[in-house]
Amino acid sequence: MHYLLLAVVVACVIGSFKPIISGSRRRHYVIGGTASFILLVATQPPAPAETPPAKANGGDAQSTIRKKAKDAISHVEAYTPSQDRDVYNALGPQLFSRVAALEPGAIYAAAESNKCDSVEASAVITRKSSKSGVVWYADCKNGNRFVVTQTQAQAALERATDMKLAANDLEESCTSETLPMCMASDAQKAAQNHEAEIVSACDMAVKSALVGDSSMDWTWNVGIGKDDDLKIARGFKAVNAFGANLKHRYFCTYDSGRHGIKELTIEGPLGSQRII
Predict the structure, then answer these.
(1) Could you tell me if 114 and 163 lie in one domain?
(2) Domain range for residue 8?
């Protein structure tokens, strides 16, 4: 600013010398003063650009979330029909061509959760994916797994692009100790709240098929089957036609969507017998 003021003063002083400087000489001095003004303005150093104030917490949140996602994103590889045939068959060619580009969004969605310390790996869940949408799992180092839909992944990608990633309290879908629940359908998850009732239904079906008395073990195992199926396995002792109390085991397939037993098989010393 002081250069500009100096140039104006010089130009005005030279231009006021009319009593002393005549005609053409005055014009030369005025031109010279104007030139000096232009030169001084042109060579004036530009004002430093103003730096926008940083957001108090936004920058830190962005950095933290991106750091949590960085390693997993760096390991995302292109999907090929020859090496990922199951994924290709589940998604179809159009969606399959986009799956690798969308996967970082699934990683960001998991990294935004306060229940994830750092994302280790991600992959498509073919059992849950279809031509209408991709579903991924994203595993965190602390043992939590997040099941992420295509809609969630796309939204997280948009937030990443707009620098609007934000921490949240999204709950994990399962843990390293309860991984089968991540594969469960909504009906299967709902049925978990009625597990004892379902096992009791299988018990009754077994007892009705036996000739003699039976007593069930205290414990049972429940697994996740295809579609909405639950797989129940339980040991029991049954009295045969000769009065012997023998150890058996039953395998019961329960359709949690239709609320009924689909298949029931009993195994014992004399072999296997399908009841339903």
Answers:
(1) yes
(2) 2-43
For the segment 95-112, what is each residue's pLDDT rounded down to a tens digit?
Answer: 999 999 999 999 999 999
206: left (phi over 0), alpha (psi -120 to 50) or beta: alpha
Q: Looking at 143, 159, 182, which one is the last position of a domain?
A: 182
Question: Is 67 contained in some domain?
Answer: yes
Q: What is the pLDDT of residue 21?
A: 35
How many structural domains are present in the chain? 3
The residue-averaged pLDDT of 181-207 equals 91
pLDDT in tens, 9-50: 444 444 443 433 334 333 343 344 444 434 444 445 554 444
pLDDT, tens digit, 9 for 90 and up, residues 222-234: 988 888 999 999 9
Looking at the fold, whether 173 and 131 belong to one and the same domain comes out as yes
Are both 133 and 225 inside the same structural domain? no
Distance CA 172, CA 155 (A): 18
